[in-house]
Structure formats: structure tokens, C-alpha cells
Amino acid sequence: MPTATISPSPAAGNSPSGIYTPVNHTHPFTAITGLRFGTNGRVEPVYDSGNVYANGVVIALYDAHVTNGTFTSTSVPRVTVVAAVQNVEGDDDNTAGKAEADRFLAEGKITAEKYKELTTTPTPKTEGVKPGATPPGRDSAAVTGDIALTTVLTPNGTTLATMIKNVTYPRTIAQLAQCHPSVTGPQNVVNNLAAFALNIYEPIKEKYPNAFLTNTYRHGAGIGGGQHGTGQAGDFQFRKVPAHAYYDIAVWMSKNLPYDQLLLEYLPGQTVWIHVSYAAPNLPYGGLSVRKSKGVASTLATLNGAAGGKFTVNLHQDILESAVPNRIVAA
């Protein structure tokens, strides 16, 4: 089929291209050098532009017409201090979160005023809710065989994909090998995730169907010293729930889950989430236990995600109310 052309032929285009191409740039008439027949029979313009990039990621293809239906524009999220801190916050301290706040300040992404707000921990006015007796955990069957995202972890059908892929900050099968040294390999990480799913994730989802995981397993440099790197911990948020309601949810968790550690975490003026971990008795798959290593007093706390180790024992409603506006933090 002959290639259609336009007449008169326009002048050479001057549309910008390359990795610094603005995302919202347009192609003037002079950028059209001709017409062609696409694979679906449509007559389409031919541009002299290259691929369009944003933050070094291709978001539009110059030759998308030849691969009709196979290209989806890539979403390039804006990295915020909330996302950065929540993806690295610690299990029993938050030095990594403080480091991220420091980095954002040094790079000029937040003001000194915002930095002070983020890293200031309000003083609690009461003793708060203290750790109490927890229900016994349930034994989870060992997960054997090849590891895949479709691997079923619990009798209720929770899969590995639910625990490491369908989360706000996902991980891959390959990354399971980059675990905390207290766990010997991916198989044991998966078994810890199975125990966590059975004893923590599923009871929370049953009580709060609007719950979702932002973090579970972390790998490599993002492990820190805690239970995210062993497959024993997860961070939860709740859709359409105002910030201050997280306190009541955390109190319910403290009374109804066989948790090893439970943290009501927040960023002042920004957001809130709940960190929960589970340690299978005797740690058959390796890992850590806060109760065993640091005592019961370290199992329950209210924690500023960017304050650098400001670990306030017990659950404190007044801290949350004074630090975080009572708005929906997860749509």
C-alpha cells in the first residue's frame, strides 16, 4: 500500500526531542513530515520527534503506531518525603526515616520549617495504652516447592503476590534472596510471610476489609535491622479512614492479634500507618523477636517516622491528634 503524503510538503519540524523533552510539549504543523497508513488502516501523521521522556523514563514512543495496542504510558510518580520515609522507616527506631528527611532538606525538597515539623515528636500527655496479653498464634504449614507469586501461603488462599507484589512498595521473587542475615534464604522468608499472613494480615482484613499493605518484605540496603527484612512485618493503611481513627484500630490490634511488635506510626502534618510484626514461636524459619530481644515494653509504641529514634512507648491518642490533621490519608 503506498505511503500517503501531504502537499505541499511542510518545512522541517522544530519540535524538541531527547531525554530532556518536556512532558507536555506539542508538535506544531511544521513537525509533520508526512502521513502513513497505520497497522489498523488509519492514516496517521509522521513526526520528526524522538521518544518522550520524564525523569529518564519513556512515557511516549515515537513509533507507537507500528506496535498498536502494546504500549502503555508509564506513570512516573512524584517522590515525596512521605513515600520516601514510609518505604524505609524502621521497626523499633526510625533512623532510616530521619536520614530520608535529612536528604530531602539537603536537596532543597523541603524547607527548614517543614523539616522541623516532620522531625518533632510531641510529648505525650498520658501514659497511653500499654502492652497486654495477646492471643496465641496459629501454626502455619511450611511452604515447600518452587517459589512463585502464585504460591499459596495459607488455607484461606492468600498468595505470595498478595504479600510482596500487591502492595504500595512491591518486591520481586529475585529480591527475596537479599534478606536479613538472620533468615537463611528465600524459602524461609516465604515461610515467615505465610505465618504473618495467617496471624496478622488475614485477621486484619476480616475486621477491616478496607485495610491494605504498603510494606511487607524489604531487601538489600532497605532492610534496616528489623523484621521487614525477614518477612515478619507489614505496614497497613486503611482506605477512607480519617487519621485519628488509626489509634482505635491500633488499640484493637493490640488486644486481638498475636503481634510481636505494633507501632502506631506517623509523619507530623502528613500521614499515619500501623506497623505490625509476627514471630513464629521458636523462630523455626529464622528471623527476629522484639519480645525476646528487647522485652515486652518495646512491643508497643507511637513512633514518628522521621524523628530519628524517637520511640515513645505505648499507644498515644493525643500524640496522633496533635501531630496529624484528622483527614483521610488513604483514598
Helix content: 10-25%
Mean pLDDT equals 83
How many separate domains make up the residues?
Answer: 2
What overall geometry do the principal axes of the alpha carbons give? Answer: globular
Strand content: 15-25%
Secondary structure category: alpha+beta
Q: Biggest β-sheet, characterized?
A: 6 strands, mixed
For the biggest β-sheet, the strand order reads: 5-6-8-7-9-10
Separate helix tally: 8
Order of H and E elements? EEEEHHHHHEEHEEHEEH
As a whole number of angstroms, the C-alpha radius of gyration is 25 Å
**How many extended strands?**
10
Unreliable stretches (pLDDT < 50, length at least 5) are 4-32, 67-71
Distance between the termini: 51 Å
What does this structure look like?
By secondary structure, the protein is α+β, with helices and mostly antiparallel strands. It folds into 2 domains: 1-76, no CATH class; 81-323, no CATH class. It contains 8 helices and 10 strands. The protein has helices at residues 81-86, 95-106, 112-119, 160-164, 186-207, 245-256, 290-294, 317-323, and strands spanning 32-37, 43-47, 52-54, 57-60, 211-215, 233-238, 261-267, 271-277, 300-304, 311-313. The chain has a 6-stranded mixed beta sheet with strand order 5-6-8-7-9-10, with helices on one face. Strands 1-2 form a two-stranded antiparallel sheet. Strands 3-4 form a two-stranded antiparallel sheet. A hairpin with a 3-residue loop joins strand 7 and strand 8. Helix 2 (95-106) runs antiparallel to helix 3 (112-119). The radius of gyration is 25 Å and the shape is globular. The termini are far apart.
